């Protein structure tokens, strides 16, 4: 529970500061750091989606989210709720891919390092 809150707030903050590229960068870092835990990529993805939902809620309270969603949805020929859903799926998929990639690369590097230490038997 606390992990989701921390990831959500971190994702919202880095998105606010660096844009959507920040989601991929933070997910890479989290995927590498938590590579030994099960479900790490999905937990990071859920946190990223929660972070963007937090940003949407802030925009809904302080800005014209409904008007923007209707206008943009009309231009894209999709309903406004579908546009909000796609907006929440984007950071989830981006974070999941980045975290899974970093975790696998970390595991691969760890296994390569272990192979380099093993001394082959003498003939």
Distance between the termini: 55 Å
- Low-pLDDT residue intervals, each spanning 5 or more residues: none
Please write the string of helix (H) and strand (E) elements.
HHHHH
Category from helices, strands and their pairing? mainly alpha
Strand content: under 5%
Overall residue-averaged pLDDT value: 86
Q: What's the count of strands?
A: 0
Radius of gyration: 19 Å
Shape designation: elongated
Number of helices: 5
How is the main sheet built? none
Helix fraction by DSSP (H/I, runs of at least 4): over 70%
Description:
- The chain starts with a helix and ends in a 6-residue tail after the last helix.
- It is elongated.
- 84% of the residues lie in helices and 0% in strands.
- The chain is mainly alpha-helical.
- The chain contains five helices and no strands.
SSE topology sketch:
Elements: H1 2-18, H2 21-33, H3 40-62, H4 65-76, H5 80-117
Helix pairs in contact: 1-2, 1-3, 2-3, 2-5, 3-5, 4-5
């Amino acid at each position: 529970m606390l992990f989701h809150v921390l990831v959500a707030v971190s994702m919202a903050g880095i998105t606010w500061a660096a844009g959507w590229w920040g989601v991929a960068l933070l997910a890479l870092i989290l995927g590498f750091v938590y590579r030994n835990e099960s479900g790490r990529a999905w937990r990071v993805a859920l946190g990223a989606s929660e972070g963007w939902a937090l940003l949407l809620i802030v925009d809904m309270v302080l800005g014209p989210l409904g008007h923007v969603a209707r206008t943009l949805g009309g231009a894209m020929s999709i309903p406004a709720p579908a546009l909000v859903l796609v907006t929440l799926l984007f950071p989830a998929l981006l974070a999941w891919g980045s975290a899974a990639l970093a975790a696998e690369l970390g595991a691969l590097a760890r296994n390569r390092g272990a192979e380099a230490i093993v001394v082959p038997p003498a003939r």
